[in-house]
Amino acid sequence: MTESASNANSLSLPPLDNSIRRLQRDLSRKAKGSNNRDKARVKVARQHAKVTDRRRDWHHKESTKIIRDSQAVYVENLAVSGLGRTRLAKSVHDAGWSAFVNMLEYKAVKHGRYFGKIGRFEPTSQVCSTCGVKDGPKPLHVREWTCMECGTVHDRDHNAAKNTLAAGRADRLNASWSAGKTRTKVPAQRGEAGSHRDGQTTVARIPAL
User: Fold this and answer.
1) How far apart, in whole angstroms, are the C-alpha atoms of residue 45 and residue 53?
2) pLDDT for res 106
3) pLDDT per position as a tens digit, 137-174
4) How far apart are CA 31 and CA 205, in angstroms?
5) What is the pTM of this model?
6) CA-to-CA distance for 165 and 159, rounded, in angstroms?
7) pLDDT reported for residue 197
8) Sheet of 70-76: strands edge to edge?
9) What is the rounded CA–CA span in Å between residue 70 and residue 3?
10) Segments in the chain below pLDDT 70
């Protein structure tokens, strides 16, 4: 199995139709307090429920596929609440990034996969994944760029995913190294098995768990 990385920009949901927009426009034209407005409101609610179910179904299928095909999964720890207050709010909420990440995390635990998050300030979209040179911030409309150092042409999302994977591997390696360094030897219990001077074996007194 392989390791994979995901970011919000590469989370491609299936295309949604314009039914909600049309139904909401019809709702706004109905007179307040009328029966027709109540009927229109019910239609809008039903369409929102369909879109929600469609998004959840896609989340489950995609997260199951990623966990099944990968031994380790790394994601960016994005400030979703902050992005929801920008002009990207509609795209962020449509993607349902938080719900998707939660699914990845609990499925990774369930199936014995490693799940890791890298810091939200990691410059994944600014660093060339080929030579490691930091090329600087770029506007969101720039989806492809060329490294000024090595000349590699990058897709913005693919390059960010590669950097996320590299940062996740480094964090995992550092965590494993720190855990090994802090591991200490546990002294044997006094009541463990030993030998009497007369040759009889003592009974081990190991505390009950």
Assistant:
1) 12
2) 94
3) 888 788 899 999 999 999 998 999 999 999 988 888 88
4) 82
5) 0.65
6) 10
7) 53
8) 2-6, 70-76, 114-118
9) 5
10) 1-17, 79-95, 178-209
Which pLDDT score is estimated for 193? 47
What is the structure's pLDDT at 115? Answer: 93
Question: Exposed, middle or buried, 125 (CB in 10 Å: 0-12/13-18/19+)?
Answer: buried
- C-alpha to C-alpha distance for 44 and 19, rounded to whole angstroms: 9
Question: Given this model, what pLDDT does residue 77 score?
Answer: 80
Give which of 163, 11, 2 is closest to 101, Cα–Cα. 11
